Amino acid sequence: MRFRTVPAIAAALLLSACGGGGANPTVYVTEVSPSGGPAPVPTVTVTASADDVPEYDYDRFFNVHIGDTHAQASAAQGYPITGETICPWFTRIVSNDNIYFIGGALTRVDNPLNTPFDTFFMRYYGDPNAVYTFPKNAEGIGIGSTLAELQAAYPTMYETDPDDSYTGLTYYVVEGPGGNNYRFNVEGGKVTMVFWGPGLSMQPGDLCAL
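^ that's the sequence the OP posted. Answer follows.
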């Protein structure tokens, strides 16, 4: 099942990942089942979409596209989308802080509010054994996908920075059309972070405490 985004007022649960400003009052992740213990406090608003359009693609995240400005993204999504106050190159598009999930877009650090998006990202910090439905692409890959599922979906993907002792992450790159690529970061055998678009030279440390 695919989903379309629906705004929901949940300001108390949507905390700024960068310490202030820019958080939009929306949640988009639906819980499938908890992994032991009680389920998290329900803070989710989701409705089924009539179509079967994947939530993200090589150049798109929901209705926002690579090359869009903040104003175009706001119009496409139907709610204000802007950079965080402390780090304006970092922009939330979807988030659910109650389960430590965020998805958004990046612009250039040197001119953040006057340049279009060149990278999308998703990051999950929560329990790796919990089971949630996160945004998926056409191959059914997203946060929580296993390394085996990645390999099956993208047999030509390649590994980069395998000895990155600073982050402890292993990166798998899938080259896509138009110079847009996926980069899947794998921790404990599962995808915990995804970057996509043409701007993949930016490292995780540039994501303003993401």
